[in-house]
Design a protein that fits this description.
With 270 residues, the chain is an all-alpha fold. Helix content is 79%, strand content 0%. Helix 4 (74-106) packs across helix 7 and helix 9 runs antiparallel to helix 11. The longest helix is centred in the C-terminal third of the chain and has 38 residues, at 182-219. It is globular.
Length: 270
């Protein structure tokens, strides 16, 4: 068929039919299509013998392990232990990053005073601090909270500073003209104006905190999802390892969705 002016090339042929089919699928079905495909590929590879049970368990084995750990309460116990550590470290990071970020955003002297140390520390992965955290703080809860704090602190701090720097200068000029107190300026102008950027930092920081707690628990812990992964590896139980990885991903997604929901409620105008 020859091309004619006005012809929709994107909609023609097999690609066009596939695109039209995807457009007719319900959103919820399209949302689950790729996970279902991956599950079928996993099951097919297991049935055809392409994967070995001692390296990659079957979907049924992982599901049976999940049911067993839910029934004896161990899975819930590990998730709760990890969440408690994440929330503690994240809250400390949030308060610290907000305080320091506002100080940097409002004072050039504070910015100059802190920038060298912060720029040196920021690229260091939180996981690299684990050996020193154990030496300084022991293998208890404090060292894990410290690692989580590091993972969440810098993303929040950077976004707080960027959010404040993005506020229109005329608001600061008006505040100066009307002699608005510093505390009121922070609560009524700076924090609301920087909220979109702060929420981005919260989202990234919380995700980092969850990754960091899993890494910290794999090295020194007796509970938590990271400990479950490490325990499965030491016992040569790939079903526990795969289940732990799926739990990490699922819980991380739930937390991210929760932050996005809060962001939508807080930033109604966005």
């Amino acid at each position: 068929m020859a091309y004619e002016p006005g012809m929709d090339l994107a909609g023609g042929g097999r690609a066009g039919r596939l695109r039209g089919l995807s457009g007719k699928l319900p959103a919820w079905l399209l949302y689950f299509t790729l996970p279902i495909i991956l599950l079928l590929v996993w099951k097919g590879a297991d049935m055809l013998g392409y994967i070995k049970p001692y390296t990659m368990p079957s979907p049924e084995k992982v599901a049976a392990t999940a049911i067993e750990l839910v029934r004896n309460g161990k899975l819930v116990k590990h998730i709760v232990a990890s969440m408690e550590r994440v929330l503690e470290g994240f809250f400390i990071a949030l308060v610290s990053a907000l305080a320091l970020g506002v100080g940097i955003g409002l004072s050039k002297r504070v910015d100059i005073f802190t920038t060298l140390v912060l720029q040196i520390l920021r690229p260091i992965p939180p996981i690299a601090w684990i050996p020193m955290a154990i030496l300084w703080l022991g293998i208890g809860e404090t060292s894990k909270v410290f690692i989580i704090f590091l993972g969440a602190f810098f993303p929040i701090l950077v976004n707080v500073v960027d959010g404040i720097s993005g506020i229109d200068a005329k608001y600061f000029e008006l505040a100066s003209v009307y002699e608005i107190p510093r505390k009121k300026l922070i609560l009524r102008v700076i924090l609301p104006g920087a909220t979109p950027s702060i929420m981005t930092g919260v989202r990234v920081g919380l995700g980092n905190a969850w990754v960091c707690v899993v890494a910290a628990e794999m090295i020194a812990a007796v509970s938590g999802v990271g400990y479950m992964l490490s325990d499965g590896r030491s016992l040569s139980r790939p079903d526990i390892v795969i289940l732990g990885m799926l739990v990490v991903g699922f819980v991380g997604k739930v937390m991210d969705d929760l932050v996005k929901w809060v962001r939508a409620k807080v930033l109604v105008w966005a």
